[in-house]
C-alpha cells in the first residue's frame, strides 16, 4: 500500500511517454463455499506461497527490496511475465518514469471474451525500499498471478474479457496505475466493467475488509465470505490509497480486499476474527521484517479463493 499523503507529497513522480494499451480456501471453508463458487477453482495456497518465495529470493538477491527503479522490481516483473507468457497470455510491459527512475506496469490479457466488457484484477508489484514487501504487496501480486494461472489451467472461456495487471511505483503515489488509466481512451475506460484491487491480503494479525465502492462488486465478495462463515467489515484504513483510486476517478466500477496494515486490531475485531487485540494488523508494514514469515496462511488462502470467485462470477 502506498505511503501516506504527507509522505507521497515528498515523492516526485514524473511520467514519460510509453506504450498505450488499448486493448484453496482452508479445507473446511472450501466445503461450505457459496453455491455460485463451484464455477471457480480452489486457488492452491502452495502455489501462491511459491510465488512469495520467489519474490523473497529476488529481494534478497537485490539489496533486500523490490522497490521502484531497483533491480529487484524488474526481476519480479520478469518472473511474472515468464509465467504468464508460458500460460498463454498476451503480455504488455508499459514503461514510465517516476522520481528519475524507470518504472514498469505488466498487463496480461487472456484470449477471448467480449472486448466491450473487460474484467480486470490487479495489484501493485513494488515494495518500499526498506524491505522485501512480501505482504505489501507480494501477497496481492502472487494471488492475482495464481488466479491468472488458474484461468489458464481451466482453459476458462468467460463471456467477458479478462485482464490482469501488476502496477509499478504504487508506493510513490499510485504512479503506475495512474499512468495506465490516464492513457486509456475514453472508450477503453468505458469498456472496463470492473476493476478488482488486492493490496495486502495476508497480514499476520488479519482482518477481513471489503471495499465499499461498487455495490455489485462489494456484494460479490461479501457473498463469498458469508458462504464460508467469515464476517467482514468495510475497508477504511486504506480507502483511496491504492490502485483502485485512479480507476474509480475515471468512472470504472471498483472493489477489492484488504487484511489491514498499521492500524491496531480492536478487541471486538479480535473476538470476531481471532488474533491479538491492540496489535497492528501488520506489525511489519513498510519494514524490513515484511518477509515470507510475515504472512498469515489462512487469510492468504481465503482471500485468494475470494479473488478467484469474484473473477469467475463477474466475468461469466
From TrEMBL:
Residues 105-310 form the Peptidase M28 domain. It holds the Pfam family Peptidase_M28. Keywords: Hydrolase, Metal-binding, Protease, Signal, Zinc. InterPro entries: M28_fam (IPR045175), M28_SGAP-like (IPR041756), Peptidase_M28 (IPR007484). Residues 1-27 form the signal peptide. Belongs to the peptidase M28 family. M28A subfamily. This is M28 family metallopeptidase. It comes from Streptomyces dubilierae.
Amino acid at each position: 500500500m502506498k505511503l501516506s499523503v504527507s509522505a507521497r507529497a515528498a515523492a516526485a513522480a514524473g511520467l514519460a511517454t510509453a506504450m498505450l494499451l488499448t486493448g484453496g480456501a482452508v479445507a473446511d471453508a472450501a466445503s461450505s463455499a457459496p453455491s455460485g463458487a463451484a464455477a471457480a477453482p480452489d486457488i492452491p495456497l502452495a502455489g501462491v506461497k511459491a510465488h512469495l518465495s520467489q519474490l523473497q529470493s529476488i529481494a534478497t538477491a537485490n539489496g533486500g527490496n523490490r522497490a521502484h527503479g531497483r533491480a529487484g522490481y524488474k526481476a519480479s516483473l520478469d518472473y511474472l511475465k515468464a509465467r504468464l507468457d508460458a500460460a498463454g497470455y498476451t503480455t504488455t510491459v508499459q514503461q514510465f518514469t517516476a522520481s528519475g527512475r524507470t518504472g514498469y506496469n505488466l498487463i496480461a490479457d487472456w484470449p477471448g471474451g467480449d472486448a466491450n466488457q473487460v474484467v480486470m484484477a490487479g495489484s501493485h508489484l513494488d515494495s518500499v525500499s526498506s524491505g522485501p514487501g512480501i505482504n505489501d504487496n507480494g501477497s496481492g501480486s502472487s494471488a492475482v498471478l495464481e488466479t491468472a494461472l488458474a484461468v489458464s489451467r481451466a482453459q476458462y472461456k468467460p463471456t467477458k474479457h479478462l485482464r490482469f495487471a501488476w502496477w509499478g511505483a504504487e508506493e510513490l503515489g499510485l504512479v503506475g496505475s495512474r499512468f495506465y488509466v490516464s492513457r486509456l481512451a475514453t472508450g477503453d475506460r468505458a469498456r472496463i466493467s470492473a476493476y478488482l484491487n488486492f493490496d495486502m491480503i495476508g497480514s499476520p494479525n488479519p482482518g477481513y475488509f471489503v471495499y465499499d465502492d461498487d455495490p455489485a462488486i462489494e456484494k460479490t465478495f461479501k457473498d463469498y465470505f458469508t458462504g464460508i462463515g467469515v464476517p467482514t467489515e468495510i475497508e477504511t484504513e486504506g480507502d483511496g490509497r491504492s490502485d483502485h483510486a485512479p480507476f474509480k476517478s475515471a468512472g470504472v466500477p471498483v472493489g477489492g480486499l484488504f487484511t489491514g496494515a498499521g492500524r491496531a486490531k480492536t478487541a471486538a475485531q479480535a473476538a470476531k476474527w481471532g488474533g491479538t487485540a491492540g496489535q497492528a494488523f501488520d506489525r511489519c508494514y513498510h519494514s524490513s521484517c515484511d518477509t515470507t514469515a510475515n504472512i498469515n496462511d489462512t487469510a492468504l488462502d481465503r482471500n485468494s479463493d475470494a479473488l478467484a470467485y469474484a473473477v469467475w462470477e463477474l466475468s461469466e
